[in-house]
Amino acid sequence: MTQFSLPNRWKLPDLGLGVGLRTQHFRHITERWPAMDWFEILSENFIDTEGRPLYFLDQIAERYPIVMHGVCLSIGSTDPVDFEFLDKLAALAKRVNAVWLGDHICWTGVAGLNGHDLYPVPYTEEGLRHMVSRVRIIQDYLERPLVLENPSTYLTFASSSMPEEEFIARLAVEAKCALLLDVNNVYVTCRNHDLDPVAYLDAMPYEHVVQVHLAGHTDNGTHCIDTHDGRVIDEVWKLYARVHEKTGGRATLLEWDANVPKFSVLQQEVGKAARFRNGAKAERRVAA
Amino acid sequence: MSLRDTARLETVERWMQAVVMHPDGAESGVRSKPARRLLPQAAASLESVVLPSKSLTSIERIGIYAHMYYARLLEILVAEYPTTQQVLGEKAFERACRQFLERNPSKHRTLNHLSVRFPDFLSRHLPPGNRSKLAVDVARIERALEDVFDAARAEPLTAAEFASISADQWHRVRLRLIPALQLLKLRFPANAYMNAARGGGKPHMPRPRATFAIVYRRGFQVFRRDQAPEQFKLLAALARGQTLAQAVRSSVSGRSGNADRLAATLGAWFREWAAAGIFCGIK
Question: Domain count of chain B?
Answer without folding.
Answer: 2
